Amino acid sequence: MKEIFIAGEWRMGRGEPSKSFFPADMSLNAEFSTASLEDVAEAIEVADRAWRDSSWRDLLPTERAKVLFRFADILERDREALAQLQMRDNGKPLYETRGLVASAIATTRYVASTLETMDNELTNQRMHDAITLSLYEPLGVIAAITPWNSPIASEVQKLVPALAGGNAVILKPAEATSLIALELAKRLEEAGLPKGILSVLPGRGSVVGNAIVNHPLVKKISFTGGTNTGRALAHIAAERLITTSLELGGKSPTIVLDDANIELAVNGVIYGIFSSVGQACIAGSRLFVHRSLYNVFLAKLIEKTAALRVGHPEDPATQVGPVISEQHLANIDRYVQQAVAEGGKIEIGGKRLLAGELAKGSYYAPTIITGLSNRDSVCQEEIFGPVLVVLPFEDEASLIAEANDSIYGLSAGIWTENYRRAWQLARRLEAGTIWINTYKKFSISTPFGGYKESGIGREKGRLGILSYMQQKSIFLSLDDTPNPWCD
Ligand code: ADP
Q1: If you measure from the C-alpha of residue 207 to the centroid of ligand 1, how many angstroms do you get, rounded to a whole number?
Q2: Distance from the CA of 204 to the center of ligand 1, in angstroms?
Q3: CB of 172 closer than 6 A to ligand 1?
Q4: pTM (2 d.p.)
Q5: Ligand 1 lined by 154 (C-beta under 6 Å)
Q6: Is 247 designated active site?
Q7: Considering only CA atoms, which of 164, 227, 198 is closest in space to residue 444?
Q8: Is the CB of 370 under 6 A from ligand 1?
Q9: Strand partners for 475
Q10: Cβ distance 291 to 394 under 8 Å?
């Protein structure tokens, strides 16, 4: 059984042991221990002490950056092994997990470079007898809680900026995918992160996660996961008066206007929904197609979806792998059955795939459904699977109203050859990220986060580190004049 990383030590956690399975054939990847409530308390107390003892927070930014650059080099050295492990842990095809590892490496280098070049401020001078400064200081112990869909990318995206800001971190990975977080800890240790500054505490969200966010020494919750969990965490943070950054669910609209380049749009729509088997908060799961193109577009969409290569994640030809678990597959299928009950027509897919080797894993067919309205539950609720609903539209005013008729606002896609129309539409859509004539592109330099119930706060960008810091103003007197009352 695998040890976990508690308070700077590799040892068995005192919680119930847990297991990681390969979704392609349900074989066992590893058994690992999880944290108990005592482990949580110990890790947080040690993290707070390690943070206060100045071995990390008082390093010069360039010295902290050096550790992070070393970490990036170590990730690069081990990139293939990490991509393989990530593939086994959550079943994503190797081409995708290689991309996730590359993104983690680039994120680390970008954040380390940003840290090297970050300035504090000498604020505008408003008096002759004092200098005024604004400094950024760390918050203390950060709780980083991550989901199972892209662990290495989402974990590094939280860990590295939080550490760059001089904080300590308690990382709680998702139950199904805890292995990468432990590997990241090993490599941060090797890179020279001081002991106790990081703990990785696998375990159940409702137990271990809940204990972490309620601990009085935790000063910020950085969470990626479901909207309901995010809302519960926001309540706790409000009660405790600590800050949160919440990256939550989505039900993103993709819009194909009447002047779109059809070939490009069909490819983009398919990639936007079926890559990662739709297990992405940004999946383009609601497709609005202008009525004049609808039949032609739908026919091409079905034809290209039928040609997608569903298969074993290790096969370089595979585009669509298994979903994370049997339980998740059952949830996806339940939504599809609900769509049919609401009057939807399954144009393709709509079932589990059981042919040959696929029978060993949790494979669900890429699915396209028509005949529904945007108000139907499969258009309103996040499925987190390979299910696309196609809806025709006629005029732009009703299109905008329907696209925005969602509790979510994470992302949206627009396909048109007219950039003026795209710009106007982009400004009217209520979403944190808009892709025009592309989809699912990411950049660490560009902030990411949600409107509405898709989240609070932004990750990435030059301001990413500052979201793990607080400002301190300093007034430095330049003369000996006493304050009033004393003279
Ligand atoms: P998903 O549906 O993507 O699994 P969840 O919101 O359930 O999203 O889980 C995301 C992360 O949040 C996981 O690491 C999970 O263990 C954790 N989590 C779930 N419930 C809680 C909770 N009550 N308190 C803290 N963390 C939680």
Answers
A1: 10
A2: 8
A3: yes
A4: 0.97
A5: no
A6: yes
A7: 164
A8: no
A9: 132
A10: yes
Alpha helices by DSSP H, listed for 165-309, are: 179-191, 210-214, 227-240, 262-274, 294-306
Residues 6+ apart with CB under 8 A from 443: 460
Residue with tokens 């009703």: 398
* H/E element, 80: helix 79-90
Is 35 within 8 Å of 43 (Cβ atoms)?
yes
Contact 246, 234 (CB under 8 A): yes
> Which is it for strands 18-22 and 27-32: parallel, antiparallel or unpaired?
antiparallel
Residues 96-115: pLDDT tens digits? 999 999 999 999 999 999 99
Low-confidence ranges of the chain (pLDDT < 50): none
- Is the beta carbon of 175 within 6 A of some atom in ligand 1? yes
CATH class of 253-436: alpha beta
Q: What pLDDT sits at residue 148? A: 97
Whether ligand 1 lies within 6 angstroms of the CB of 205 is answered as yes
Domain definitions of the chain by residue range: 4-248+454-474, 253-436
Tens-place pLDDT, residues 310-354: 999 999 999 999 999 999 999 999 999 999 999 999 999 999 999
How much distance in Å is there from the Cα of 19 to the middle of ligand 1?
Answer: 17
Supply 211's token pair.
Answer: 């204990």
Q: Which helix (H) or strand (E) holds 5?
A: strand 4-6
How is domain 4-248+454-474 classified at the CATH fold level?
Aldehyde Dehydrogenase; Chain A, domain 1 (3.40.605)
At 222 the pLDDT is 98
**Residue ID of nearest Cα to ligand 1 atom 27:** 205
Of the residues 229, 381, 383, which should be mutated to test ligand 1's pocket, given the most ligand atoms within 8 Å of the CB? 229
Two tokens at 321?
């792998």
Residue nearest to atom 4 of ligand 1 (CA): 147
Look at the block and give the residue holding tokens 């308690």: 170
